[in-house]
Specification:
The complex is a heterodimer of chains A (305) and B (163). Chain A has one domain (43-302). Chain A has nine helices and ten strands. In chain A, a hairpin with a 6-residue loop joins strand 8 and strand 9. Chain A has 305 residues and is an alpha/beta fold. Chain A starts with 8 loop residues before the first helix and ends with a strand. By secondary structure, chain B is mainly alpha-helical. Chain B is 56% helix and 11% strand. Chain B has a three-stranded mixed sheet. In chain B, helix 3 (50-67) packs across helix 5, helix 4 (75-91) crosses helix 5 (93-106) and helix 5 packs antiparallel against helix 6. At the A-B interface, helix 1, helix 2 and helix 3 of A face helix 5, helix 6, strand 4 and helix 7 of B. Chain A: Residues 5-39 form the F-box domain. Chain A: Pfam families: F-box-like.
Chain lengths: 305, 163
């Protein structure tokens, strides 16, 4: 470990930012007095949530799930030693002076979907939803043609969209905005999960917006979720064949939806493509997204639910 | 097209390296020296040995070549090259840390990011033996649970961590 002695402090902090993982960094504090002094200055962190505390009495499955999640995350983040069992995560985030970039990784996705169905989303929030890109499809079972009626397919798609929006809103309401309230120095906050199902992002602008709104409302606890009127553009195909790694695959009923609040009218077609590619372009589903972007889009409007 | 002027760099142990200007200015430090007209003779780099300077030049050359239109290398291949370049030094930690210092002194951001990320990955992968100042024995970071329990108690009571 003598090698570290020759490195100046800012480089050690850069290394800690590259490590990012909160648990590893907390271990690093035990290495030396110097590390202990420098770890709190790391400001780009990744907090992996291992599990969510179980709840005794679930009313709405999804909302109670998030209430549990809030309890867990609050244990991590609350500056006041609440009457909770002294698990180390409580103290872990407290050890950092000023967090600028925080990623929270939840253990799993929250949407309860049929087997073989994949729904993914990326939602950007300020004080409320600013945009959301949803990608959904079913893996082909290989058992002949699935000729669902048009209405059935549409119902299924709407269910996907609603689940994704509720999931994103709940994550934002119960996790992201609470964290943003406690850590004012944040410039970026992302809440994602290990299954890669959804990502809720608050960028600098969004965080400022949320802080301003919170100042006005005196930080009430989580009440009901409010989802504003939304405008969405949907692109879908019957099936899509993709090359992909491992010999290709066929996806049933793929759909790409770009959701925005029904406020500004200047959202052009190009912005949809930008958002969609930003969300999924570089990942495993880039091909599907690009294929879907080629087809025409339908506009829908959804009122609060 | 800029002329490919040759710049001479002299390491701390007196060895001279001649490189194209495009490669040399990957280093912001050298770039400023050239702009300030200090580069007529060899540029002395008293903080960098010849061994390390050779590696730095190899890195810069590859990255300059990679972005030239003729030899266009795609991002994945370049990343693979970077991984192989730095892997050699994982065996020799001293060289890795010397590279960090050189990249910092010469202000080559991409090399600094690469080397820092490598060290970070080694920390995450428990590749450093840990010597605790107070307890005075060596143990690997695989014992992190024990460390963490002790640590949180110390932090909470602030007994040993006074500035």
């Amino acid at each position: 470990m003598d090698c570290f002695d020759f490195l100046p402090d800012p480089i050690i902090i850069d290394i800690f930012n590259a490590v990012s993982d909160v648990k590893t960094l907390t271990c690093c504090r035990a290495v030396s007095r110097r590390f202990n002094a420098l770890v709190p200055h790391a400001d780009a962190l990744l907090l992996r949530v291992d599990r969510v505390l179980p709840e005794s009495d679930p009313d709405s499955l999804l909302l109670s799930f998030f209430r549990n999640l809030l309890n867990s995350v609050h244990h991590f983040l609350s500056p006041h030693p609440a009457p909770v069992p002294p698990n180390y995560p409580t103290r872990v985030l407290r050890g950092f002076a000023r967090i600028r970039d925080l990623e929270i990784e939840l253990p799993s996705g929250d949407l309860r979907l049929e087997k073989g169905t994949v729904v993914k989303y990326r939602a950007v929030f300020g004080e409320r939803l600013r945009s959301c890109v949803i990608l959904g499809f079913r893996h082909w079972h290989g058992a002949g043609e699935a000729q669902d009626g048009f209405v059935e397919e549409l119902k299924e798609r709407v269910a996907w969209i609603v689940s994704a929006l509720v999931g994103a809103s709940a994550r934002h309401h119960y996790v992201a905005s609470q964290v943003a309230r406690e850590h004012r120095g944040l410039a970026r906050l992302a809440v994602r999960d290990r299954d890669g199902e959804g990502e809720v992002v608050m960028d600098e602008l969004g965080l400022r917006e949320a802080a301003a709104a919170a100042a006005g409302s005196h930080g009430e606890g989580p009440g009901t979720l409010a989802v504003p009127t939304l405008r969405m553009s949907m692109r879908h195909e019957r099936t899509v064949e993709i090359a992909g790694g491992g010999g290709g695959a066929r996806l049933e009923g793929p759909m790409l939806v770009v959701v925005r609040p029904d406020e500004d009218d200047d959202a052009a077609e190009e912005d949809d493509a930008e958002l969609a590619l930003e969300a999924f372009g570089s990942g495993a589903h880039g091909e599907v997204v690009r294929a879907l972007l080629k087809s025409g889009s339908y506009l829908m409007e959804m009122n609060s639910f | 097209m800029a002329s490919s002027r040759k710049i001479t760099l002299r390491s701390s142990d007196g060895e001279s390296f001649e490189v194209e200007e495009a490669v040399a200015v990957e280093s912001q430090t050298i770039k400023h020296m050239i702009e300030d007209d200090c580069a007529d003779n060899a540029i002395p780099l008293p903080n960098v040995t010849s061994k390390i300077l050779a590696k730095v030049i190899e890195y810069c050359k590859k990255h300059v070549d990679a972005s030239k239109a003729e030899d266009r290398v795609n991002d994945e291949d370049l990343k693979a090259w970077d991984a192989a370049f730095i892997k050699v030094d994982q065996v020799d930690q001293a060289t890795l840390f010397d590279l960090i210092l050189a990249a910092n002194y010469l202000n080559i951001k991409s090399l600094l990011d690469l080397t820092c990320q490598t060290v970070a990955d080694m920390i995450k992968g428990n590749l450093f033996p840990v010597r605790n100042e107070w307890l005075n024995f060596t143990f690997s970071i695989a014992n992190r649970e024990l460390v963490l329990v002790c640590l949180t108690e110390w932090v909470a009571h602030r007994r040993l961590f006074c500035s």
